Amino acid sequence: MGDNRPKLSNVVRRLPLPELTVQTLSRSISPLILRPAHSGTAAHIKAEAMSISAKTTALIVLMGILLSLSAFFIQRSVVYPAFHEIEVDYARNNIDRVVRRLDTQRQTIDFTVYDWSAWNDTYSFIQSGDPEYIESNLYPDTFLNFGFDVALFLNLDGEVVWGSVYDFPSDGSIVDLTATYLDDIVAATAKFTGRIDPEEDIDDQTTSGVVQVDGIPVLFAMRPIVQSDGSGPHKGYVVFGQFLDDELITTLSDQIVQGFSIEPVSENTAPAAPDNYSLKIIDQSTLSASKIYSIDGIPTLRATAILPRNITELGRDITYYGIALLILLCIALAAALLALFRWIVVKPIMSLKADISSISSAMDYSLRASIRNNDEIGALSREFNSMLQMIEYNNTELLRLNAELTSKHQTVLAVQSDLQAANAELKRLSEHDPLTGLSNRLALEKKLEQAWGILCRTGDPLTVMLVDIDLFKLYNDRYGHQAGDQSLKQVADILASAMQRKSDMAARYGGEEFLLVLPGTNAEDALGIAASIREQVIAANIEHDCSPIEPFLTISIGISSVVPHGDLTTGDLVRAADRALYAVKGSGRNNFRYEPVGTTGH
Hints:
diguanylate cyclase; 15 strands; Beta-Lactamase; EC 2.7.7.65; 6-stranded antiparallel beta sheet; 5-stranded mixed beta sheet; diguanylate cyclase activity
């Protein structure tokens, strides 16, 4: 168990510390200034010394009594109940071992039944009743080796094709009980055939249980007869079982080194939970533990074991001796602590009081106490004045450093805020074109690579549009570069407004060229967007009277789209758009054209 008490350092940190100054120290120590003692001081000191000694003695005696009572309480309330819990767990574990052994016995029977039921020879025998199968396999020594008392081969109607019931006494003889018990066992086990679901896996086509025959429980397992590869259809059932008689129970008890008994339970008994045990104290030396053994969730048997209460007896003895020993130890410890306290603490304090009384009576403060111990009492007289001086100095220094640190912290915060703003502005300037406000080539390349990587995984298309202002050099020559810059901004605004999704990007590609990146947009939708952009530029009616195309500014657009994959790059996509733009320029400009990736025509 961990120690949940707060550490001393944490407690000290939570205490509010007042500002320590020379004035507060002087007020605190002023009552300690030595003054001349009045008559009877020695007697007063002696009375106080006796009081401390008496109080210390009473405290140590009280501590010894409390420790003794605590030891008694712990032994009776913790140790002894712990032994009882160990005994209960021991009983539960032992009865669980019994139940597990019964279930292991059932699994052993079921495993053998599985070998016989999923066998081509058995599959043929259940249909033909071949005597050679009986002579080769179904003789008493076979079941003696397995330890099975019951062996049934039934057809689908529950009729016996072959069956035998044996008893194998410990003297090695074989007693045939077929005529006596066969009909009863067949009738009792017939109802279990309905519990086998032929739709389940062949490994799960099984049922087990316990039936009563002449007052003796019979533990059995049943499986359908199929071919060796597990295929069917079912042709019958194989049933093997054992009498849970006293001889078998004794054998199982010897195997797990735990005696037990069993008794049948009613089929109407409610299924028991895995941790449902019945424990009963018989007397001070024995107890019984029982638990219901269920098969496929159906209660079948109640197993009971009688166990000695050795653990409780041991716990009781340990408790009594432990209490006596702890009481003796507490008495010895109290006596030792009292003697030690008188030697280490009381005696030096009495000497210190005598020195103080002498200094006070003589009014000579150059005298010093005679205590030279290398402990707290000796250090008290040596370090008191130097401690006051050090505390004052440290307090002043700490206040100065705190003010300096606060000032520097504010400066750092201001510089940090300015640096963050500068970084944000630098990032914005590095990724945007200063004239049009659109993204620049650096941001464009990042966007293309990012969109390409994402769409390679999603399988969606990536479309780019290369936009060029027609005959822009003539425009600059005619209207001047300032007008040219203004027209670039107008076209850039139209392109930016055409971006319909947050993932779309319009960027200045160079000079009068722009590149639009449209992730997730197919070629058909891109043609519609291009037509809209072209119409908006025409509607802007930017005068261009020296253009042989129209008396206003026009644009040409090259479009390409592809579903990104590892055999292509963004450069292939942009080059296809460039080929489309080249074709538009060659056919008269003021238009748009789509060019798929991978073609070479112009």
